[in-house]
Amino acid sequence: MNDIGDQCPPLPHPLGMCKSRVAAFGYPCEEYTVTTEDGYILSLKRIPHGLSDADNSTENTRPPVLLFHGLMVDGFSWTEYTKAIAWLHFGRRWV
After folding, report:
1. Distance of CA 61 to the CA centre of its chain
2. Burial class (CB in 10 A: 0-12, 13-18, 19+), 29
3. Where is the signal peptide (predicted)?
4. Nearest to 45 by CA among 62, 70, 63, 28
5. Which residue, among 35, 18, 36, has the nearest Cα to 27 in the 3D structure?
6. Closest CA to 46 of 61, 32, 60, 62
7. What are the residues whose beta carbons fall under 8 Å from the beta carbon of 39, sequence distance 6 or more?
8. Contact 86/67 with Cβ under 8 angstroms?
9. Which residues pair with 1 in a beta bridge?
10. pLDDT at 93 over 60
């Protein structure tokens, strides 16, 4: 039998994605927890507007964008660097 040791995945960032990643880039972020009927607990993040429209005047006129990550990835993959897909959507005026 092979001894694989402690190869557990790292724990999530203690501040959560909004505070540790999104706010670091200057964007507002909201976090929600949803429990499905079958007991799964989902963590949802919402970035309500971009940096240039803090007055929320266009918040209800832009189409929403829903990003899903795969099984072995988390939401940090959408905000990993300045040209990540989440930031590109804001540049195109999508929410």
Report:
1. 21
2. middle
3. none
4. 28
5. 18
6. 32
7. none
8. yes
9. none
10. no
- How is residue 35 written in tokens? 């429990």
pLDDT at position 13, please?
Answer: 62
Reported residue count of the chain is 95
Predicted local distance difference test score (pLDDT) of residue 27:
80
Which residue pairs, CB below 8 angstroms and at least 24 apart, start in 56-62?
58/93, 59/95, 62/93, 62/94, 62/95
pLDDT beyond 70 at 70: yes
Q: Over the stretch 14-45, which tens digit does the pLDDT of each residue have?
A: 667 777 777 877 888 888 999 999 999 888 88
